[in-house]
Amino acid sequence: MTTRESLIARLAAHRQQHVLAFWDALDAAGRARLAAQIESIDLDTIDRLYRNGPDHEDFGPLMARAEPPPAVRLADAERSEGALRAGAAALSAGRVGALLVAGGQGSRLGFPHPKGMYPIGPVSDRTLFQIHFEKVLAIRARYGQPVPIYLMTSPSTHAETVAFLDRHRRFGLPEDELILFCQGTMPAVDARTGRLLLKDRDQLFLSPDGHGGIVSALEASGALDHMRGRGIEQLFYFQVDNPLVPVCDPTLIGHHLLANSELSTVVVAKTSPHDRVGNAVLVDGVVRIVEYIDLPDAAARAREPDGALKFWAGSVAIHVFARSLLERAAGNHQLLPLHVSKKKVPYLDDSGRRIEPADPNALKFERFVFDLLPAAENAIVIEAQRRQIFAPLKNASGAATDTPEWVRAQMRRQYHEWLTAAGVAVDADAAIEISPWTALSAEELQEKIERGQWCVGSGTELP
Ligand code: UTP
Question: What distance in Å separates the CA atoms of residue 56 and residue 33, rounded to the nearest whole number?
């Protein structure tokens, strides 16, 4: 059979032949591209999701059984010293790696490059990637052991990310400590008909398969083997858009280790019922996260007798994974169900006209990495202070929050607080930035200032 005939046979079984409408007019490269995309799609799964809806349980009944989760306080006076020791020991033994997800399309921000390339440093214009890499390098220097970064890209961000990191020589990270791997994609279908959407005459509309795509991408790329080979047992997971993330924080890793947990997730107190963060909840004794879009209104608004929000624990997408859980999940893809969401997706209609829908017209399919929580042994929730760890860059200038201006203001506020706590007087409106090389926390800055290792005003570290 020719390619065309075999494609038709495959597509016809699912009534999707329309994606070949322009086949005769395509050149060889266009045909090869479209054929490869069609062959990579699991059409049975798409059919099933369209007909039956998502693989996961309905959130209404699930939230009816939900309770607020128990949480360990990151700075709990009794436990945090032991946690710091345990985390520091793991870092000193070279057993910790960093998992950085940067495959998203960043559509809300509207920046025409991967989000990690956004210059966010309030004084230096350091990019998000540079900030994260310098934090890892500072941890590496402090504990004297490599902390490999496993960096997930997607077809939308891969090539530019590779070129950018090459250009900057990985900000000093040794070559064998940066493992880039590309996640997979999922097609979008018309919400009314279930038909696959074309982005162009020779291309389906495909988008990254969600941060949960990390499990199969880690396995397929050999990154899991790399971790095993290097003796990496714990992975500090974070998102590229949050410059305040306390990358590989030893106390956080220590709480996870002391609880013998396979997945520990960090939360902050929500500021409103519909705060745009995931909700950590306890259902049938199991910790899970329910995205804000999936949270039924009654559950979002539920209050305790003292007036506090019942479901108070907002996820900041910072987790610590045991490698054992990622390995188990790689062997059992059912652990990560596909979620379905309705989005606006521009497409070509059957006559080749480009349609820009005014309203959500398509179903997109994604996996969420936090769906591994129910499969984890001894999962725990760790509560931290929002202002200390979370300022995500999501929106373009002009939005109320999570914009470049807002994120820079949060960064300046943090540096200001660190300096004030260390007894340094700073003007409220001073332009400040503290490099990760100087300090990763208020405590480290204070120690350095007290030991005379950092000179206020010079902005540089003394030898
Ligand atoms: P978001 O869901 O906030 O998406 O991703 P986004 O791409 O940053 O922005 P929008 O929604 O298109 O405006 C949260 C984190 O998860 C990563 C993103 O790169 C970001 O670090 N992510 C998201 C992936 O790595 N892959 C995905 O498929 C989705």
Answer: 32
Q: What is the mean pLDDT of residues 50-56?
A: 89
Q: Which residue, judged by its Cα, is nearest atom 10 of ligand 1? A: 106
Helices (H), 13-157: 28-40, 43-52, 59-64, 77-92, 128-143
Query: What pTM, to 2 d.p., does this model score?
Result: 0.96
- State which ligand 1 atom lies nearest to the alpha carbon of 240: 21
Distance CA 382, CA 239 (A): 17
Question: Max CA-CA distance within the chain?
Answer: 77
378: left (phi over 0), alpha (psi -120 to 50) or beta: left
Pairing of strands 263-269, 380-383: parallel
Least confident of 16-25, 75-84, 219-228: 75-84
**Residue 431, SS3?**
coil
Q: What are phi and psi of 78, to 5 degrees?
A: -75, -40
Measured from the Cα of 209, ligand 1's closest atom is 28
152 lines ligand 1 (CB under 6 A): yes
So what's the pLDDT on residue 76? 81
Which of 157, 239, 293 maximizes ligand 1 atoms within 8 Å of its Cβ, making it the mutation to test the pocket? 239
In 3-state terms, what secondary structure has residue 66? Answer: strand
Looking from the CA of residue 395, the nearest atom of ligand 1 is 13
Quote the CA–CA distance of 373 and 281 in Å, as a whole number. Answer: 11
Distances (CA, A) of 260 to 70, 86, 326, 437: 16, 11, 15, 31
